[in-house]
Design goal:
- The protein is of the alpha+beta class and 154 residues long.
- The protein has one domain.
- It contains three helices and four strands; from the N terminus they run ββαββαα.
- Strands 1-2-4-3 form a four-stranded mixed sheet.
- α2 packs antiparallel against α3.
- The radius of gyration is 17 Å and the shape is elongated.
- The two termini are 33 Å apart.
């Protein structure tokens, strides 16, 4: 299972229409550098678990096969984006957008795990969790932690 240690503010939402129940928590940690190189240094130092962003998902089920998924996204947030050089601000916005999209792919793995557990009537849920946790690793290897999908700060 994935773990997360995160800093920052949080906002919780529940996607009531989803089955199983999915709860999403968004957390941030603050960066304040004025150059791309310094932003990268700050994210390296302050990011969760040694990453610039992180997604933790946790699937819980009961004996009656009621399932819930908790997804926590931890992302960098610039303290004063307006003070960035216009070119860097544009790059930062593109970077954050691509990073969020990448992290949402990890979150989708948690939802897919829960759906698969539900389809099997909660038979061998632990094996399903291992399968989808491994898919997180495959995703990061295939995309170089999102870099191949635009998670690049220039």
């Amino acid at each position: 299972m994935l773990c997360v240690a995160a800093l920052g503010l949080s906002v919780g939402t529940t996607m009531a229409e989803a089955k199983p129940k999915v709860t999403v928590l968004n957390k941030t940690y603050v960066v304040n550098a004025a150059t791309a190189q310094d932003l990268i240094r700050e994210m390296d130092a302050r990011g969760p678990n040694g990453f610039w962003a992180y997604t933790d998902w946790y699937v819980k089920w009961s004996g009656s096969c009621d399932l819930s998924v908790s997804i926590t996204y931890t992302m960098p947030k610039h303290k004063n984006e307006a003070k960035l050089d216009p070119e860097l601000r544009k790059s930062w916005k593109s970077f954050v957008k691509a990073l969020k999209k990448h992290e949402e792919l990890h979150g989708a793995h948690g939802v897919q795990a829960a759906q698969e557990i539900e389809q099997t009537k909660c038979a061998d849920g632990d094996a399903v969790i291992r399968k989808w946790s491994n898919q997180d690793k495959v995703l990061d290897k295939r995309t170089d932690h999102g870099k191949k999908d635009g998670v690049v700060l220039k």
